[in-house]
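Margin note: ligand = adenosine-5'-triphosphate.
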Amino acid sequence: MIEVQGVKKRFSTPHGVVEVLRGIDLTIKTGERVAILGSSGAGKTTLMHILGALDRPNEGSVQFEGEDIFALRGGALDEFRNQRVGFVFQFHQLLPEFNALENVMMPALVARRSRKEATDCAQELLEEVGLGHRLLHKPGELSGGEQQRVAIARALVRMPRLLLADEPTGNLDSGTTAEIYRLLERLHQERGLTMVVVTHSLPLAQRMDRMIHMDDGLLVPV
Ligand SMILES: Nc1ncnc2c1ncn2[C@@H]1O[C@H](COP(=O)(O)OP(=O)(O)OP(=O)(O)O)[C@@H](O)[C@H]1O
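Resulting structure:
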């Protein structure tokens, strides 16, 4: 279970302080799939970054399975992020000079898994996302949907409990988008992952267990 309580986030800019999250309370059950909808600038990405411990709130707390993550000290917060959370972004951020297999292996190698273990795990995941025949292709040699499937495989290589996807299909056509969502649904069923997905697409959001709307830094009733 994830419990977000009283989370506020502001950024200081040369033009003054911007209040981006103005008091977020949210509970997400383990294994639940939540879609976050909302207009541009509502604070969705900022909330995702805080859920994944990529950024800290100014006020409030986030508990992950009973642990207050922002109370973690030293390397423990990095460890939490690296081991428990997988990220998929709209622009997948694959490394262009490495092939699909190497891109997926990378987080496992960084986590000091052996080369053999990382290769086997990456290959298995790429097969699971339907790219067993594209292991040695570089991102530039793959379609947009294939690149996003590599990014999903990479997000899963450290066996996270939580998958955060920020507009994962934002730059894909509708057929490819539906395919990515089917893949996310299958991964959810097979792995019991908790998923939080930011999307602008209502039909896609409706396929999740729950929809949440954000407006101007607050959650608003649907
Ligand atoms: N590092 C930052 N410094 C200053 N302002 C920021 C920073 N990051 C985000 N903001 C501001 O916070 C607001 C919310 O941004 P955020 O990216 O969370 O919105 P969003 O709901 O994800 O929008 P979109 O749908 O367009 O991606 C925006 O007005 C943005 O300009």
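The pocket of adenosine-5'-triphosphate is lined by residues 11, 13, 18, 20, 38, 40-46 (CB under 6 Å).
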